[in-house]
Amino acid sequence: MYTQLEQRGMASPPVNVSTLRRMKAEGEAIACITAYDASFAALVDQAGVDLVLVGDSLGMVIQGHDTTVPVTVEDMVYHCRSVARGLRRAFLMADMPFMSYTNGDQALDQRGAPDAGRRRHDDQARGRRRPGEGGGISGPA
Fold it and tell me: What's the mean pLDDT when you consider all of the chain?
């Protein structure tokens, strides 16, 4: 059924929102880890991680800031692009940086938050996480 996956060296289909919903409904553990670059993303993808988050924590971990507040949309775009290059199967999810939207609805509406739509298009992230609002995930099924 998945001959194109075998040709690309993949044993199972890529994870998507439907996969994550099914896993949750069935009580199956979802393996999630944070990555900021292509090499680490490739390693965790090979290990079978289901979901990879590019978190705004990169402000502290990578950039050396005391908080995540200085992280910009451009920073997130750069790191999402890097991580996307290393992934074949795992679902890529990105944080929305501090003050990049005014409310949760705007974060999910590409017309109300052009940066969110741009990030989704440019960086290949298939989901967005809205910190401070229960960590809701949005993305296509």
Answer: 79
